[in-house]
Design goal:
Helix content is about 70%, strand content about 5%. It has a two-stranded antiparallel sheet with strand order 1-2. A hairpin with a 2-residue loop joins β1 (about 125-130) and β2. It folds into two domains: about 1-80; about 85-194, no CATH class. The chain starts with a helix and ends with a helix. It contains nine helices and two strands. By secondary structure, the chain is mostly helical.
């Protein structure tokens, strides 16, 4: 998916150099690019060579999207046939990609004594330093599997951005930075995954 985003951003940047402004977002770009190319060509903003290059780029983007759709269908089939993945995907903030990655990486969740230990293994718990009986909490430890941590943080970010907030989340958003709340929610997601 990153490659597709990179391709669309390159296309948007290239056309911007010629005065053609396209909207952000993959679907919006694809729905407006043909009309924008036609209009720019009529106004004489684009040479024929640039239009042909853009059309070739659009074909590459379409091929990448087909590959992404094929992989999404394959992941959905894997989730349907694996009980452990189906259980994990029922948790808000965990999608098919996260579920398959979690189950594949952590084959036996019983190796962890608690959900907190699992969250600590992922690097989602705060680091602590202390001396003289006083402890100080720092940022997350970032130990463990970077990819799994990234997936859970992305799921938490989507929950905060797209759904109604709970009282806990609203109170935390008032006191803390948005990214701190995202990581705290990712920590909360990791515990029922365990």
């Amino acid at each position: 998916m990153k490659v597709r985003i990179m391709q669309t951003n390159c296309l948007r940047g290239l056309l911007y150099e010629f005065g053609v402004v396209l909207p952000e977002g993959h679907k919006k770009l694809l729905s407006s690019v043909v009309a924008a190319l036609t209009k720019a060509q009529q106004l004489g903003q684009l040479d024929e060579v640039v239009v042909v290059s853009v059309q070739e780029q659009l074909k590459r983007i379409a091929a990448l999207q087909e590959d992404i759709d094929t992989l999404d269908r394959r992941l959905a089939a894997m989730v349907r046939h694996n009980q452990q993945m189906a259980t994990v995907i029922a948790i808000p903030g965990v999608g098919p990609l996260s579920a398959t990655a979690l189950v594949a990486t952590v084959s036996d969740f019983a190796t962890f004594k608690s959900g907190r230990q699992f969250a600590a293994w992922l690097g989602l718990t705060p680091r602590q330093i202390g001396t003289g009986g006083r402890t100080q909490q720092l940022g997350i430890s970032k130990r463990g599997d970077t990819y799994l941590r990234h997936l859970l943080i992305s799921g938490a970010r989507s929950i905060i951005g797209r759904s109604a907030h709970s009282g806990w989340m609203d109170r935390l958003l008032q006191r803390r930075h948005f990214n701190v709340v995202v990581v705290a929610l990712a920590n909360k997601i990791a515990r029922p995954v365990w």
